[in-house]
Protein 1
Amino acid sequence: MTLNQLYYAIAISKENSLNDAAKKLFISQPSLTGAMHSLESELGFDIFIRSKTGVTLTAKGEEFIGYAKSVVEQYDILNAKFISKQGVKRSFSVSTQHYTFATNAFIELVKEYGCDEYEFEIKETKTYDVIKNVKNQNSELGILYLNDFNEKVLSKVFSEANVAFTPLFDCHIYAYLSKGNPLAKEKLKSGEMIELSELDKYPCLSFNQGEHNSAYYSEEVLSTRHYHRSIRANDRATMLNLIKGLNGYTLCSGIICEDLNGDDYCAIKLNVDEKMTIGYISRKNAIISDIGKMYIEEISKYKNNILE
């Protein structure tokens, strides 16, 4: 296996076409095809599925490309630092459940990074994909939560994916509502907690987890409770519109970020004993990059924003 073969495989995975990848690499398609056949023969499995419409990664290929990207990135850093003596464009990717504070932490990371060239990426996505992205090294870190209900199942999933969970802080459970919601107005005035039964006449909103819509993958706690009215959404913007337009609510950590969501919403504590632990997953035995450490430091600051 050579470094060039890794570069070639990564290029093909980006272009989904041998012909387009060959053009980007300034080599002939037969040479590129030969290099890939040689690499796959050495590995003992196919990296790509080839068809008339292009190429796609196999399951093993997707995992391999994740490791290949890591090796190539480290080589580029070594080359820039010790051989070419030139700067290198640094990259960082994080996958996260739909948390405003995770986005805010990413914004602060970009502001503080202080280099002219970088390629950063944040993926707000489904729980399963957060784990998958870290497993396949498409993201260095993944931000999600554990609680008493999902911990046993997700810990097994983490182990099978060769990732480890590191806790950052614990949170009580809050209902996130529009300040115009009648129940929100009542509770903000009285200062009382919300009883679950008081929410029954309002739509409960949750994030769609696609084909992995098991309660264990839910981004919201109390996912096995029966809700009289429920709506699923795919993104935070839609969720906020539904909260405001339908007097809906979702269950959350209570970490409020008005900078991004605005001040039209509030979090009111639920009268339940449930708690959730926010943390990050990373590949087992992997050394977290300096940029990754910076991001963890930024997100850890939100411990000070936790409502009591």
Note: The two ends are 55 Å apart (CA to CA).
Protein 2
Amino acid sequence: MRIDLHAHSTASDGTDTPAELVRNAAGAGLDVVALTDHDTVRGYGEALAALPAGLTLVTGAELSCRLDGVGVHMLAYLFDPEEPELARERELVRDDRTPRARTMIGKLQDLGVGVTWEQVARIAGDGSVGRPHIATALVELGVVPTVSDAFTPDWLADGGRAYAGKHELDPFEAVRLVKAAGGVTVLAHPAAVKRGRCVSESVIAELATAGLDGIEVDHMDHDAGTRTRMRGLAAGLGLLATGSSDYHGSRKTCRLGEYTTDPEIYGEITRRATGAFPVPGAGGRER
């Protein structure tokens, strides 16, 4: 089985619609794909309606968290999307995205960059506006060559010249909320230092004690040495070690299935979940 547990659609900051995402996942030879848009479950219906035969969909989300000034991304799988406390927190994060984006655009304009809200809103379309949309605008304007190059201290990285904060969950609270909603939590790209500061291994150990289920080990932002170190950390803490592409369509260079999760690990995730269950495709409608 080929299992990719981290992918984004136009419901947040990917470039594939949810329907295109599941079709492309099947085309890439995946058996299982997780839809993990940022702080939203809005893409579920379309993805499920278009789910091809032979592909299983894991519903999820990537929750925006922060601890002591460090950004933390928490992958949440197979939780009940209607559970009110977690739904309320997702809504608070989404509602803060637009004013945050406007603040960052203002900071860029103060730096002499001709980006506008209208440009960013066009790029975001129906998705929840976020930094990748602003980064895409910087690429369009020729300010940076790639989206990844916008995530530096010069521009949009945490603490960067054009950075602005938003409402974010405490990661310990995120673990509690997801577990209360019957879901499973995996810390996304925990050692992706190229993105900015990361939480320490001691914090990961504390999260494990608090109920964290796993860490994303195999990821494009972890080099070989980091993957080895993270795999050893997961083993020492009794955490599941996952692998994922963090696919964003054409917005990033990663490909669906570039990194995958061991079927035994996937099986354990599904065994722990009680809020929702993987959905096998039966041949979805074309859109």
Note: Residues 97-110 form the longest helix (14 residues).
